[in-house]
Amino acid sequence: MNKIVFSSWGGKIVDNRKGKSSKTPAGTITFPSLQSGGELKSLMGWNGMVITDPETDVVSLTVRYLNEIRKISCGECSVCMLGIDRLLELIGELAEGGEVKGILTEMEAVVKQVSVNSKCFFGQSAVIPVMDAIKYYKAEFQALGAGGKQNDGKDFAVTVTAPCQAACPASLDIPGYIELIRNNRFSDSLDLIRERCILPGIIGRACTHPCEEACVRNAIDEPLAIRLLKRAAADKVLSGEGDALESSGKPKEGKVAIVGAGPAGLSAAYRLRAKGYGVTIFEALPRGGGMIASGIPEYRVPDDILNHEVDLIKRTGVEIRYNSPMEHLDWKKLQKDGYKALFIAVGAHKGNKMGISGEETRCEGLVDGVEFLRDMNLGKRIEPKKKVIVIGGGNVALDCARSCVRLGFEDVEIIYRRSRAEMPASIEEIKGAEEEGIKISFLAAPVSITVSDGCFRSAECCRMKLGEPDESGRRRPVPVKNSEYTIEADMIISAIGQSPAIPVVNASQELGLTSWGTIKADSATLATTVSGVYAGGDCVTGAATLIEALDAGNRAAESIDAYLAGRDRSDDLSFSGVDVTKIRTDGYVPKEPAEKVDFLDIGKRTSNFEEVEGGFSVSEAINEAKRCLRCYRVTVWQK
Which string of DSSP letters, residue by residue, matches 133-161? Predict the structure, then answer.
């Protein structure tokens, strides 16, 4: 990283322009390298400015920054829009020889008024660095007033993000689509969502919503119900007359093969088809959706929502060949059939073993959680038992347990080796399970199972205590001596994680694998060790979230398009290292509780698979959208 010449980031001044020795503000900003090599020279963002090149034209940087934040200003309260316009006018007057002292004084006054009177966090924070520029680079503004020249701004680039947007694996423009909902433009909101998320009805129901954890309103009252607002946009359009996706572009040469019709495969297929490529998906299951179809119960994602969103993608011309497992993938033959690129998105559908004594014995009642959910979702009859224990603490374990209740199992117990605080399942899932009468035994783990007459009979468990953190950052569970106890049950379901079943690829090069048994792929382009073959989703990362898999499909489509066009994606500039959690002004926002949705009555939900969580009405969605603070963070940086 270049030496800091000047920084006001986070309000901490670092000024080395006169040979002073000052340390870079620790932990306040990440200053990353570009993908194509080299380093950023300087930047201006909502939280201040950082200059590493002493030749930086700060006035031109300020003008470009003002022009960029002007595009984001909504004009609803008019304060920041009028203020930004006035600041640009004043710089123009300065360039025309206006009275320097008076202009700079008025610019400072405008910045203060915009920061104090804007109603959203964007308006309150956006103009802050302009004050820094005026105060600490006054000589450059004075030089402009004396006839100095500005550069043309071509060496500047811009990044727009927000705390919620930065936390989203797919980088959805969350403030943008919420603002459209606020203005009752649900169809436009859905179009914006689909630019990065082609399965909005599904993700709006089953997403782990890290965006809500990053929402600035957490420090004020309650986070925005971002996931439910996404669902509201999808459901509103679904209930209307039309809901077609963008038709494919001008046909391009080269077909693309995709293995797996899960969120990664579907997303890549749609993006590539929209670019004009012929796309064929090979799917082992009899329906599309991957883990959505085979692993998420209908009470979370109804079949009609899944079928509708898959059908929309098929209508664009994407071919899906169901019941087409590809355990042995002949890339050479696919190339002879006209396919120019291949995307492997097989997910992680193989349940992990518990690694306990007796597990190697095949018997009735010893069930893999992934297989249990797959069989149930594909219509196989499951005979309810009196007592079932589910091992694990993730969403798969919770889905298995809650499904067992609905299938008629009398006694359902989850056994998890850590405490509730470490449980990886979503808070909503844990709460739902407890409401439905499911017992969760924390700090316990099985050590062996007993089998007789070909049937599972009992599990011996032991108590656990939490030790030092492991590689996941969670405290490692340690067995407590002499704490063993036995649980008699009719079925034990193992749901302690999944692994991908990697196909055998016949190609001139060998498909590289990691030590974890996942496909080795470039983190930026998703290219594998085989030319023309890409991979993404759970088969690369291990079991992760739906939105992460979906984003892998987005990125794979861009990489494949670049590959087929002979374009090197490493030439694309990227800048994502700015810390978006620190704001120099907290502003003032009155408290306003979030809108709530209704849930299916507990007494009714355990006897069927009806959707448990309700959605927003139109008026409720609009009211919730009004709580958004539009925390956009604009950064202009010198290439």
Answer: HHHHSHHHHHHHHTT-----STTEEEEEE
The answer to the question of residue 381 being in a domain is yes
- 171 in any annotated domain: no
404 and 388 in contact (C-beta within 8 Å)?
yes
- Residues 126-151 have pLDDT tens digits of 999 999 999 999 999 999 988 777 77
Report pLDDT digits (tens) over 163-221: 999 999 999 999 999 999 999 999 999 999 999 999 999 999 999 999 999 999 998 99
Residues across the chain:
639
Q: Which of 128, 154, 180 represents a domain boundary (last residue)?
A: 154
Query: In 3D, which of 543, 530, 169, 567 has the Cα closest to residue 343?
Result: 530
Question: β-strands 485-488, 455-469: how paired?
Answer: antiparallel
Pick the closest to residue 170 from 198, 147, 206 (CA basis): 198
Question: 455 with 332, same domain?
Answer: no
> For the CA atoms of 271, 272, 275, 279, what is the dihedral angle to 10 degrees?
-130
CB of 535 within 8 A of CB of 549? no
Pairing between strand 439-441 and 444-452? unpaired
The sheet carrying 156-161 orders its strands as: 14-15, 6-7, 48-51, 42-45, 633-638, 156-161
Alpha carbons 55 and 3: distance in angstroms, whole number: 13
Tell me, what's the pLDDT at 554? 96
Write out the residue range of the structural domain in which residue 342 sits: 255-349+500-571
Short-list 435, 201, 224, 161, CA closest to 296 = 201
How far is the CA of 366 from the CAs of 292, 361, 412, 457, 489, in angstroms? 24, 9, 15, 9, 11
For 470, residues 6+ apart whose C-beta sits below 8 A from its C-beta are: 476
Greatest extent of the chain over all pairs of C-alpha atoms, in Å: 97
**End-of-domain residue from the set 498, 517, 532:** 498
Chain-centroid distance, C-alpha 93: 44
Partners of 631 in beta bridges: none
Cα radius of gyration (the chain): 28
* Residue 571 confidence (pLDDT) above 60: no
Note whether 375 and 506 are same-domain residues.
no
User: In this predicted structure, what is the pLDDT of residue 195?
Assistant: 94
pTM: 0.88
Q: Is 517 within a domain?
A: yes
Do residue 381 and residue 290 come from a single domain?
Answer: no
Residue 189 lies in a domain: no
- The C-alpha angle with vertex 528 and arms to 522 and 532, in degrees rounded to 5, equals 120
DSSP states of 416-446 as a string? Answer: -SS-GGG--S-HHHHHHHHHTT-EEE-SEEE
Can you list the positions of beta strands (E) in 153-275? Answer: 156-161, 255-259
